Amino acid sequence: MESIKDKVAIVGMGCTKFGENWGKSYDDMIIEAVYEAYEDAGMEPKDIQAYWIGSYWSGLPAPSMPLSTILKVGYKPVTHIENMCATASDALRNAAYAVASGACDIALAIGAEKLKDSGFSGLPTDEIAMGITSTAPNTFRSRNFTAPSHFAMMATSYFNKYGLSPEEGKRMLAKIMVKNHHNGSFSPKAHFQREITIEQVLNAPIIAWPLGLFDCCGVSDGAAAAILVRGDKARSFRKDPIFVKALQIAVGWQEGYMNPQHDWTMVKETYQAGLAAYAEAGIKNPRNEISMAEVHDCFSITEAVIYEDLQFTRRGGAREEVDAGTFELTGELPVNMDGGLKCFGHPIGATGLRMMYEIYKQIQGKAGPRQVKHPKLGLTHNLGGTPGGATVSVSIVGP
């Protein structure tokens, strides 16, 4: 299979502030993100040849038509992408494949979601989160319990397998959340921009034991956009384009919910997507070659397990790496430099491109007080679904 490595580059990106954007509509956020991308790339709307819009919950059943109206694209192709929490990353992937194939030379990928006005908040069940209404036919795969409960099972399984007492396990998770809030305090576009303490995390109200309030990401609104061009033409648009090295997605078959032997201490789809992305990018040692990552910290335990699934550390090694500060801003391999989902919240259709926006700025040396020293290859990771069955995106970019 032929690699996409260096065949496509990102030459412009935009991102709104994430949060409770009551004063902005879905349309407003898309326009804001897209026009920042136009300005960043030095382009005009007429330069874009094709569009991909990622949206999971917002808009009409076919958001391609509203996008055409919002951006006044004329009679150019617009495609709607929906792939759970990997939606924005898949929009980027499809746009990149179109450019690499020669179907177009300049493409725009967008991820947007307006959740705060939708009633999507609190602890929606899987049926609600997956868009299954109360009148939909019930199936044996329909499960009536919440996302926090799924990941709480991952946490208790992890503690048990690797011999962590509840106190030791919760403290490890608290340190991850304190790290992300520290990073988020430097991110002007984050929903939450204040530091927290380990004691606040440990003493917070329980959502699904052992996960407390600060172990869970919030619900927010947001949009992000990226302009992609052919790799061999990238430097004619700007001096510092970011080149795509790998775009991979792995989708599981939800066997974890039915298999009593399923190990809740890993997500097979993350591991497999990572393997495929590393092979496409030519990476032999992820721990040494990846210089930073934005990963899907929907819950604190998710980030801990991602460290291991992406081979940033050995199985069961997350605690010692967290204690050593490996994944902090000044550590060996910074993770969630902008604060992650924990500080940005998770507007489902937008998160993947928000992650790429951070990597893009980091590689260009434009991340301000959260800037990573000597950034090279950056990785983004999205996890849609739960530990028993997921759709996972892993993307790698670099200079």
List keywords for this structure.
single chain, 399 residues, alpha/beta, Peroxisomal Thiolase, Chain A, domain 1, 2 domains, nine-stranded mixed sheet, two-stranded antiparallel sheet, 13 helices, 19% strand, globular
Describe the protein.
It is a single chain. This protein has 399 residues and is α/β, with parallel strands linked by helices. The protein has two domains: 8-120 and 221-241, Peroxisomal Thiolase, Chain A, domain 1 (3-Layer(aba) Sandwich), CATH 3.40.47.10; 147-216 and 245-398, 3-Layer(aba) Sandwich (Peroxisomal Thiolase, Chain A, domain 1). It is 34% helix and 19% strand. It has helices at residues 26-41, 64-71, 87-101, 126-129, 147-161, 166-184, 198-203, 268-281, 286-289, 300-309, 318-324, 340-344, 351-363, and strands spanning 8-15, 50-54, 78-81, 106-113, 206-208, 211-212, 222-230, 242-251, 290-294, 377-386, 389-398. The strands form two sheets. A nine-stranded mixed β-sheet has the order 3-2-4-7-1-8-11-10-9, sandwiched between helices. A two-stranded antiparallel ribbon has the order 5-6. The radius of gyration is 20 Å and the shape is globular.
Domain count: the total is 2
Gyration radius (Cα, Å) is 20 Å
Strand % is 15-25%
Number of helices: 13
| End-to-end CA span | 23 Å
The low-confidence runs, each spanning 5 or more residues with pLDDT under 50, are 127-142
Shape: globular
Judged by helices, strands and strand pairing, the structural class is alpha/beta
Name the CATH class of the largest domain.
Alpha Beta
**SSE run:** EHEHEHEHHHHEEEEHHEHHHHEE
Mean pLDDT: 92
Helix coverage percent: 25-40%
Output the CATH topology of the largest domain.
Peroxisomal Thiolase, Chain A, domain 1
The CATH superfamily name of the largest domain is Thiolase/Chalcone synthase
Reported for the largest beta sheet, the result is: 9 strands, mixed
Instruction: State the CATH architecture of the largest domain.
Output: 3-Layer(aba) Sandwich
Widest β-sheet, arrangement of strands: 3-2-4-7-1-8-11-10-9
